[in-house]
Amino acid sequence: MGQRNIKVVLAYDGTDFVGWQRQPNGRSVQGVVEDALARMHKHPVHVHAAGRTDSGVHAVGQCINFITDIDSLPVEKFALALNSFLPRDVKALQAEEVPPDFHARYSAVRREYRYYVFPSPSPYPHLRRYSLWVNRLPDVRLLNAYASCIVGEHDFSSFCSPSDPSPSKVRLIHTASWFPEGSQLVFRIVGNAFLWRMVRALVGTMLDLEKQKADPEMMRKILEARDRSAASDSAPAWGLFLHEVQYE
User: How confident is the model over 149-195, as pLDDT tens digits?
Assistant: First the structure.
């Protein structure tokens, strides 16, 4: 049988998962997807993912790739076939055949995350898994002033977990902005790659600074400190979505 490299775009509700990466104890997205592919192929299949989302983080544009030896299934029907083996909280949105050297993680050039905030005097129960509730509308102009400080190439040591194993904490941020979307406030960030818990640390710090009505220069000073203790606590996982992964 011939082998094909298949790229699949996934969406999932991260609430009931320990994260993307397979864990010895706990339900992972990777484990669920690989188990579904194993049932479909009748042998183990390993997948590569563009991003390793944490426990509770969602996705509408996670990209994976894997090698298949099923040559009788047209690629345009691959997502539908895979979905018949997947649970309700993980679904394949689309599939395509890609070159043999394509790798979901290492071939990616940009990743986009979005964080959702729901400003309202009272929380809405149906949004509790997918957005952070705050009891008032933050000053969007001020939030965007903070966000502008992180655009460009910077060392983001102040905004990542101390356990992040990356040898370099330098990342390139192409876009970072806040905007209203319906009843919610959205933080959109696009970068070449992200450190562990980086987006949540940025969101938590910006919201904290906005409460204090701090000058945007404070955000710049926190960034330049290269010290996690200089920033605020991370925003909770449930408001974060891996929105899109871009390739050349």
Answer: 999 999 999 999 999 999 999 999 999 999 999 999 999 999 999 99
Question: DSSP readout, 12-26?
Answer: E-GGGSSBSS--SSS
The partner residues of 178 in beta bridges, in order of sequence, read 187
Q: Using one digit for the tens of pLDDT, what is the confidence trace for 26-54?
A: 999 999 999 999 999 999 999 999 999 99
Question: How many Å from the N-terminal Cα to the C-terminal Cα in the chain?
Answer: 29
Token pair of 214 as six digits: 């701090």
Here the tokens at position 83 are: 């979905």
Architecture of domain 108-247: 2-Layer Sandwich (3.30)
Neighbours of 39 (CB within 10 A): 13
Q: Which helix (H) or strand (E) holds 39?
A: helix 29-41
124 carries a ligand binding annotation:
no
Residue found by looking up tokens 């809405």 in the block: 124
> Taking the model in full, what pTM does it have?
0.96
Q: Which residues are catalytic?
A: 54
Pick the CATH number of 4-98 from 3.20.20.330, 3.90.230.10, 3.20.20.370, 3.30.70.580: 3.30.70.580
- Give the start-to-end residue ranges of the domains of the chain: 4-98, 108-247
